[in-house]
Amino acid sequence: MPATDQSTGIDLGLTHFAVLSDGTKIDSPRFLRRAEKKLKKAQQDLSRKQKRSKNREKARRRVARTHAQVADARREFLHRLSTKLMRENQAIAVEDLTVSGLARTRLAKSVHDAGWGSFLAMLDYKARRYGRTLITIGRFEPTSQICSVCGHHDGPKPLHIREWTCPACGTVHDRDTNAARNVKMAAGLAVSACGAPVGPEPVLAQREETGSHGTPTGDRAA
User: Fold this and answer.
1) Catalytic residue list contains 11
2) pLDDT tens-digit series, residues 72-100
3) What pLDDT is stored for residue 218 in this prediction?
4) Is 70 part of any domain?
5) What confidence category does residue 15 fall into, taking pLDDT thresholds of 50, 70 and 90?
6) Domain count, the chain
7) Residue 113 annotated to the active site
8) Active site residue 176
């Protein structure tokens, strides 16, 4: 991939799969949710079949095929998006999400459907492959509580608050866009008015050897 001087911060979510620091919002495809009706019908059909019968085996294969179609569609979406972001940006900043922890909450189904863990893994190995920089900031960074314009710390906000006004400078913020900008700044990718970097210098990801980093090469779309 050719070098570029662009960088971005990413805020992952469920309403939108990702919001970038430039305000771009990427909708969540919700592949599993969209296939629920078809999957439910296939599972009900399976439950009605006699055990160890040929019809039951056919029904079981239909359920498995539906699950595979959902997984394939999700994987293709994540590959396309991660490659696009790598192509357009020399450096990318993301939050260190505890996906396994979230998978044990009431949001488990939505988190699984979103595929955050797979997406972050793709960004990681593609950054290494293409010589890009991927910076992960601590998950306790208060990205949704700080005004990305003046730095005022406004405190925690309930999830239903999607827009808020900074009491210090009066800037009206979209919650997710503001968080993405704070992710970018926390990673040291923002620049001051004179062009100097703000925060720590990012470290260039090392190129990955083929087949390493625990991701099968067969699953890696360019």
Assistant:
1) yes
2) 999 999 999 999 999 999 999 999 876 65
3) 44
4) no
5) confident
6) 1
7) no
8) yes
- Assess if residue 104 is contained within a domain: yes
CA 219 to chain centre: 18
**What integer pLDDT is reported at residue 87 of this predicted model?**
97
Average pLDDT over every residue of 101-120: 74
Lowest mean pLDDT among 70-84, 154-168, 204-218: 204-218
Q: Which of 76, 176, 208, 219 is catalytic?
A: 176
Q: Which is nearest to 136 in space by CA: 121, 146, 151? A: 121
Residue 71 lies in a domain: no
Residue 108 covered by a domain = yes
For residue 198, what are the contacts with CB-CB under 8 A and spacing of at least 6? 185, 188, 190, 191, 192
Residue span of the structural domain in which 141 resides: 7-28+82-219
